[in-house]
Amino acid sequence: MKSKWSPPLHLALSGSYIMAQVQDLAVASPATVSRCGMVYVEPSQIGWWPLITSWLRRMKENFPGIVAALPMIESLLTWLITPCIDFVKKHCRELIPTAAINLAQSLLNLYESMLDEFRIPTGTRASQRASQIGGIVLFTPPTGSDVDIWIQCLFTMALVWTVGGSIDSEGRHKFNIFLRRYYIQRKYVSHLKYAC
Prior knowledge:
- By secondary structure, the chain is mainly α.
- It has 10 helices and 2 strands.
- The protein folds into 2 domains: 3-40, no CATH class; 44-191, Orthogonal Bundle (Cyclin A, domain 1), CATH 1.10.472.
- 58% of the residues lie in helices and 2% in strands.
- Helix 5 runs parallel beside helix 8 (145-162), helix 5 (70-91) crosses helix 9 and helix 6 (100-114) runs antiparallel to helix 8 (145-162).
- It has a two-stranded antiparallel sheet with strand order 1-2.
């Protein structure tokens, strides 16, 4: 909350209801604070699972081309996020300190941007127009078992560049070894259909 917002917010709270999320109340006046009902929850207490649940729900609506693959995506998230974040926090040095929930959100944002090919259902005129410019096909979205391969490989790429993206070069080397061993120990190839 910036100090310039306090007087207008104080006036707005006089007869209205307003909901806002702020980082802290360092510059809020006592009058503003007294009119607000405050609930503070540590990000570590919430965890990242509500974020994942909300994201998966949104994916069903916005990405009809991969609805059948959502259980596999949920399995990837459940299987990999916690051990990877825990490894980074315990065994690596971050160049920029991060919170686990921020790493999870970054993963979801990058992964979703990589899945744009699946945003429009394949086989529709809209998807055909989206993949052509001047009659030249730029990209054909994968179909069949290729969808599973894409989803798994894109997930791995997003995981590496988000969870492993904030650590120094020595940590990246450690994270690389950890992730490869984790895939092998957990039988990545048999856990999922394909390996990237």
